[in-house]
What does this fold into?
Amino acid sequence: MKHRRMQRALTLLLAAALLALSGCASTQEQRRGTDGGETSVILATSGEPFRFYALSDEGCAGDDNLVLSNVYDCLTFLEADGSISPGLAESWELSEDGLCYTFHLRKGVKFQNGYDFSAEDVKFTFDKGAAGPLGSALFVNYKSCEIVDDYTVKIYLTSPYAGFLYGVASRLGGICSKAYYEEVGDEGYLEAPVGTGPYRLVEAIGGEKIVLEAFDDYWGEPAIKTVVIAIVPNVSTQMIGLENGDYDAVRNPPIDACLHLEGKEGLAWDRTDSTARITLYIATWNGRVGEDINFRRAIQCGINKEEVNVGVNSGCATILDIDMCPMYGGYPTEGIITVDYDRDKALEYLAASDYNGETFDILVKSGTGEETSAKIIQSQLIELGINATVTAVDNTTYSDLQYGGNFDAVIREQLSSMVDADGASTYFNTTPGFTYTKNCKYPLADVIYPLFVQGREEQGEDRLPYYVEACNIITEEAYLVPLYNGIVAVAYSSNLEGVEAHCLGTYNFYHWSWR
It folds into this structure.
């Protein structure tokens, strides 16, 4: 399998060399179809999708969703603002006990190989997805899928989970063809993915481009007939190409680069809050300086979040009071304890602590906004008299140190497909062997995590008291400092309509069209 992929990549190197003379060389006028040809767009991105089948043992990651969300449809759609809308399921109901979702499926839908879509494909996707590497994270509490008839399924949960519809709308929920899988298996599906989505994957050249073509039998009608996803690692190259008309859109450019577009004719940009929160977590184990609650409270009061926001996001991000994004389902708007920046109070807490000049090291991934945040925070803490340092490392080292609990503090960006308050339970999960907490544990995790479990099992406003109580304990104990909500941006030609920043950083090309 690997040999075939390498061989395929080598045979396509010549085609990659011609990229600038083919897809990216066409003028914007040609791509708009003004010469009578079919419409197309070129999107520049630095992150490269490369896994196009979420049900495989390899799973998939965030960049992959750029392709997955256009090749596959889910039963429900996650809209750009984080809301849920109908997809392959036209409607659904939840049983009173919260244990059964009944989905009524859209009729007349075709897969991209011509096969008919039915309840069999839904059951296949959920059964296989739940058993795979992403199942426990995205199909939370999934038990089974019952086929009622060709266009009705019942999905049963082991216990209620208020955020389940977000998992249904996630990359794992992209419906795959059972009949096609039985013909080609995992390897065949990886090589030639087939969904019911508006676009077919027709070409993928590693490090160069991915080409999507509109699916003629889609149950809607995409206005853009060809999408070229150009892999362009350098942000400056992306933005210059946008201004020159070589690219029609740039995926998630830095905010400062977008601000430079203001007032430039023919160019536009959009931003929105992402589902990510950027938070500083303080270690309270293994003799770390953070075991002292007064020291933690000094950190909590001594960080000027607005200054961090200006330094990292040109002041455009939403400051967080708790370790949740406001768009999350179950986000509590009343009754939560908040802590404002107060330098004098920080100095009081520090004086009341046992701190004696020990190093307080902040772990981050190098070359990220989190590293910039850490350096600003380092300067703020040094002014308070805290010997703060920053350790910026590669992804692998970062993961090893973080999962091992080997840090004084860590700044983490947590981008969640589950747009739900339950995501804030990550660092307090007391499930045996849970990845984040098997080597580190907050003292009151045994109190906090059961509150999250109760909150996830309730519906509507009945969830809120549990999250209020959990968040207030976390704040009072100063286990962490929420910094800011992540931002997703898109820069694009103002001749394009329907372009909007999506909370997960993906794009629904189906909504795009040329003026």
